[in-house]
Design a protein that fits this description.
Distance between the termini: 30 Å
Largest sheet: 7 strands, mixed
Shape: globular
CATH class of the largest domain: Alpha Beta
CATH superfamily of the largest domain: Type I PLP-dependent aspartate aminotransferase-like (Major domain)
CATH architecture of the largest domain: 3-Layer(aba) Sandwich
Number of strands: 12
CATH topology of the largest domain: Aspartate Aminotransferase, domain 2
Structural class: alpha/beta
Bound molecules: pyridoxal-5'-phosphate
Length: 365
């Protein structure tokens, strides 16, 4: 990306004016346009009221957001449900598997609480067995009792990628559920070609939307298996049929029930801003910056956690919370990971080489 379009993008993301913001793995930078869409939509609703016209706006904002998320994933809009977070999508889809006592779910040892929480609930409340192995070995761990595999597409700990080819084979027989919190908007996904049953992601991270949005891609091939429990008005094809109402056959059956018009419009605005750059360029530049940082750190004798080509990088530091605080004092925003020896750095298409240098200046001082 040449300097002019990069500067234009950076001007749209006000946090970058003062801050080396390297934290999209938690929450991406909010654009002025995104904040305006949220504020304007709320103000309009306050002034005009929330009658039928508001719901017309809501329906078209949902369609716009669904299309924007689908494009970011490389998927069909009809296969994308709108959720409130990655965690929300994971809970919905894991419940929809209707696992029984004695069924086994294989997961990895480095998962986020957003996946571990629903898995622990399945174990504690439904008698499901949960077995955790290293992410790289997950496909080999599948055994006769395994009814599902649920794991990160990209690890939140170090940016490692799941073994996609081996999991594609697994996915021919049993449902593979990807936690794509660090995948959606961060790397090229194409869930259909991953051969998974479901792929869930976040709106507030790499897609730079407000907190409170996410997506759940569901495979049409697993439609008979994935039957949701939490159904409301928008999930039903003919709500007026009362107890006889059936859910939509497409991914709308998994939509969260309370995504406002203003939230959907803000999420779509954020995602479209990135789409306008071109997704290939977004993915290439984001991962390229992390690769560059890795090379510089390794040359300087620093230990970087093993990673794949993603925009996440974790570097070993003796006291990560203290280092995070020192970086914050210098205007560099990253995160530390509880109980791990790392500072985690997230590089987005919006970041500049100077942002990386500001990080290095403090890290290597
Ligand atoms: C791998 C992973 N899964 C799940 C989550 C939770 O995401 P959300 O806040 O969208 O539920 C995160 C957030 O950091 C994550 O990194």
């Amino acid at each position: 990306m040449s300097s002019e379009p990069l500067q234009d993008l950076r001007n749209r993301l006000p946090v970058l004016a003062q801050t080396a913001y390297l934290n999209a793995g938690t929450c991406g930078p909010l654009a002025w346009a995104t904040a305006d869409a949220l504020a304007d939509g709320t103000s309009r609703a306050a002034v005009v009221g929330r009658g039928p016209a508001y719901f017309e706006v809501l329906v078209s904002a949902h369609a716009r957001l669904r299309a924007a998320y689908a494009e970011a994933l490389g998927a069909e809009p009809a296969d994308v449900a709108l959720t409130t977070s990655t965690t929300d999508g994971l809970g919905r889809v894991l419940a929809a598997l209707r696992l029984q006592p004695g069924d086994e779910v294989v997961t990895s040892t480095d998962e986020h609480p957003g996946l571990l929480g629903p898995l622990a609930a399945l174990r504690n409340l439904s008698g499901v067995t949960v077995r955790a192995v290293a992410l790289a070995d997950i496909a080999d761990a599948v055994g006769p009792a395994t009814r599902a595999v649920a794991c990160s597409h990209v690890s939140w700990v170090n940016g490692e990628r799941a073994p996609e080819d081996a999991l594609r084979e697994v996915g021919r027989d049993i449902p593979v559920i990807y936690d794509g919190a660090q995948g959606a908007g961060a790397i090229a996904v194409d869930p259909a070609s991953l051969g998974c049953a479901a792929y869930t992601g976040a709106g507030q991270k790499w897609l730079c939307g407000p907190v409170g949005l996410g997506m759940l891609w569901v495979s049409p091939a697993w439609a008979d298996t994935l039957r949701p429990f939490a159904l409301s008005y928008g999930n039903l094809a003919e709500p007026a049929r009362g107890l006889d109402a059936e859910p939509w056959p497409d991914a709308r059956r998994f939509d969260a029930s309370a995504i406002s018009a203003e939230m959907a419009s803000a999420g779509a605005t954020a995602t479209e801003l990135l789409a306008d750059i071109g997704w290939e360029q977004v993915f290439a530049r984001s991962a390229g910056l992390a690769d560059l940082l890795e090379q510089t750190l390794r040359e300087g004798g620093y230990e970087v956690a093993p990673r794949d080509r993603t925009p996440l990088l974790s570097v070993v530091t003796p006291d990560p919370p203290a280092m995070r605080a020192r970086l914050a004092d210098a205007g560099v925003v990253v995160r530390d990971l509880p109980g791990r020896p790392y500072i985690r750095v997230s590089t987005g298409v919006w970041n500049s080489e100077q942002d990386l240098q500001r990080l290095l200046d403090v890290l290597t001082a």
